[in-house]
Amino acid sequence: MIRVFAIALLLLCTPAQAHKLKLFVTQEGGDMVGTAYFAGGGPAAQIEGTVIVDGVERARFRTDGEGNFRVTAPANATISVDGGDGHAASTNAVVAVDPPTNDIEAAVARQIRPLRLQIDAMEERARFSDIMGGIGTIFGLFGIAAWIAARRRGKQ
Amino acid sequence: MAHIPDGILSAPVLAAGMAVSLGGIGLGLRRLAPEAVPKAAVLSAVFFVASLVHLPAGFSSVHLILNGLMGIVLGLAAYPAIVVALLLQAMLFGFGGLVVLGVNAMNMALPALAVGMVFRAVWRPGCQRRTALLGAAAGGLAVALTAIMVAASLGLSGREFLPATNLVLLSYVPVMVVEAVFTAAAIGLIARVKPELLS
Known about the structure:
Strand content of chain B: under 5%
Mean pLDDT of chain A: 76
Oligomer: heterodimer
Strand content of chain A: 25-35%
Shape of chain B: globular
Strand order of the largest sheet of chain B: 1-2
Low-confidence stretches of chain B: none
Radius of gyration of chain B: 16 Å
Number of domains of chain B: 1
Mean pLDDT of chain B: 86
Radius of gyration of chain A: 22 Å
Strand order of the largest sheet of chain A: 5-4-7-8
CATH class of chain B: Mainly Alpha
Largest interface: A-B, 49 and 56 residues
Low-confidence stretches of chain A: 13-18
CATH topology of chain B: Arp2/3 complex 21 kDa subunit ARPC3
Helix content of chain B: over 70%
Structural class of chain B: mainly alpha
CATH class of the domain at 21-128 in chain A: Mainly Beta
CATH architecture of chain B: Orthogonal Bundle
Largest sheet of chain B: 2 strands, antiparallel
Order of helices and strands of chain B: HHEEHHHHH
Number of helices of chain A: 3
Order of helices and strands of chain A: HEEEEEEEEHH
Number of strands of chain B: 2
C-alpha cells in the first residue's frame, strides 16, 4: 500500500532541476529588461530585485507573475534578484548586450532576445551525460576507498 | 533551499560549516568499514540523483533530499557520502556553490546523523507498521531539521531570520511529506528483505 503511494507521489514529480535562480538581462534603450527564473523550472514570480551602480543601491523592483521586470538603469549597473530563501542571482548588465544604436538594431535585439534566453536556460539543464558521469565518479571514488581499505587490511 | 549558492553566507558561517564538515568527513571515513563501502556508494549515488526529482511548491520548487534514509542506513558514514554527492552536484549541475559546500554538507548531514542515531536506538526488528511509521518520522524530521539549519545559516549571515525561516519551512512542507512516504517505503522494504542493514 505504502509503496503504491510512494510511486504515485514520485510520478507526480517532473524530473527537472529547479533550485538555481537564474537572471537574464538585456538592455533596451535606457531600460534593463530581464527575466528571473529557476533553472529548468518555472519563473521566479514576485521576488525582490535591486539595481546597484558603483556599489550604491539606486533602485528596487519586483518581478511580475512571469518573473519579468523592466527597470531604468545605466549600462554599468549590477542587477540582483533575491528570493529571500537563500536563492539569489546577480548579473553585470554590461556583458548582456551592446546598446542598439538605431531602430533596426533595436528590432533585431528584440527578436533574438527569446533565443538568447533559451540558450541561457539550456546551458543549465542537467544532461544525461552529467548524471551518468556523476554516478560513475561516485562509484569510482568509493571504489578507491574500498581499495585503500583492503590494502590496509592486507598489511595487518 | 538546501543547496545555498555562493555569495550569500557570511565568512564566519562558511568557516564554521567547513570545520564541522571536515570533522564529519574524518569521523565518517574512520567508521566506514570496508564491507560498508558499496552500500555508501549506492546511497551516495541515489542522493546525487534524488536532487533532480523536483516538486512544484507554489511560488518556488523543491526537490527530494533523502538525508533521513542515508542517516538510517549509513550512520556516521552518511557524512562523507553526502559530501561526495554534494561536490558532484555543485560541479556538474551548479546546485549550490563550492565555497559553501561545507555549510551545505553540514545542513544535510547533521540531521541525517541525528535521525539515524534515534532510529537505530528505537527500532526493533519485527513489527512492519512500526518500522514504516518510524521510517516516515525519520524522513520527515530530517528534512525539517535541514530546513531549520538552512534558515539558521541564512539568519546568522545577516538576513532577516523570520521571513527566511517562514519561506524555507513553508516550501519544505511538500518535501517533508514526500520524503516521509518515500523513507517509510524504503525502510519497510529493507526491514523485510535485509534487516541486518538497519542494526
